[in-house]
């Protein structure tokens, strides 16, 4: 681990009221291999804009499950071009069309075993490939405290179950603050977004909880 538990606690105290861009600079300034991740969800453009302003060459990983709606793909393309993102896309081994034809599409949460397998194949396995390729010691993400019960147990700086130092620059920002930032900087927003691995608001897909 690149920071001790005491150093993590001290960093969280120091960064609690820091601007997200300063948190990003601090994370990159640790001097270890670093990636950021995005879902290209409704407000994902806020963090991407901050990264583009501070560390434009930072590798950004997008796990495209193949089940995003058209609006998500259009906004993802627009943001990638406008912000000149260093985007790396990882997709499942099986296309969505093939999966739909052979396995009957997206399982419901009631089909717990099938849905868990679906999540692993379209989200977790592609992300594991991204980690194997980039070998990050630091992972910057757009998670926020108010989003899920699991995230309430974290902080701006935490250690992922995989041993990666996870940095969340907008961790304490509210939905209103994110919306204001998006409007202030005229950032394209994905108005229609759905993650079939989460299904419900407040539910984790496993990306931030997998060991």
From TrEMBL:
Known pathway: Sulfur metabolism; hydrogen sulfide biosynthesis; sulfite from sulfate
Name of a matching Pfam family: PAPS_reduct
GO BP term, example: sulfate assimilation, phosphoadenylyl sulfate reduction by phosphoadenylyl-sulfate reductase (thioredoxin)
A GO molecular-function annotation: phosphoadenylyl-sulfate reductase (thioredoxin) activity
One Gene Ontology cellular component: cytoplasm
Ranges where the Phosphoadenosine phosphosulphate reductase domain occurs: 35-193
Family (UniProt): Belongs to the PAPS reductase family. CysH subfamily.
Protein name: Phosphoadenylyl-sulfate reductase (Thioredoxin)
Phylogenetic placement of the source organism: Bacteria, Pseudomonadati, Pseudomonadota, Gammaproteobacteria, Cellvibrionales
């Amino acid at each position: 681990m690149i920071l001790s538990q005491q150093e993590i606690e001290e960093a969280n105290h120091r960064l609690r009221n820091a601007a997200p861009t300063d948190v990003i600079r601090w994370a990159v300034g640790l001097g270890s291999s670093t990636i950021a991740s995005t879902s290209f969800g409704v407000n994902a453009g806020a963090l991407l804009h901050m990264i583009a302003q501070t560390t434009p060459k930072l590798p950004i990983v997008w796990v495209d499950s193949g089940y995003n709606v058209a609006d998500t793909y259009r906004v993802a393309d627009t943001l990638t071009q406008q912000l000149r993102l260093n985007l790396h896309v990882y997709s499942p081994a099986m296309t969505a069309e093939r999966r739909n034809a052979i396995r009957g599409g997206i399982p419901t949460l009631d089909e717990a075993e099938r849905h868990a397998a679906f999540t692993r194949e379209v989200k977790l396995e592609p992300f594991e490939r991204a980690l194997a390729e980039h070998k990050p010691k630091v992972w910057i993400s757009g998670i926020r405290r108010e989003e899920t019960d699991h995230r309430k147990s974290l902080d701006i700086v935490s250690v992922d179950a995989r041993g990666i130092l996870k940095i969340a620059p907008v961790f304490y920002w509210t939905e209103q603050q994110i919306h204001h930032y998006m409007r202030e900087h005229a950032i394209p927003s994905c108005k229609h977004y759905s993650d079939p691995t989460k299904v419900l608001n407040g539910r984790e897909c496993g990306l931030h909880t997998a060991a």
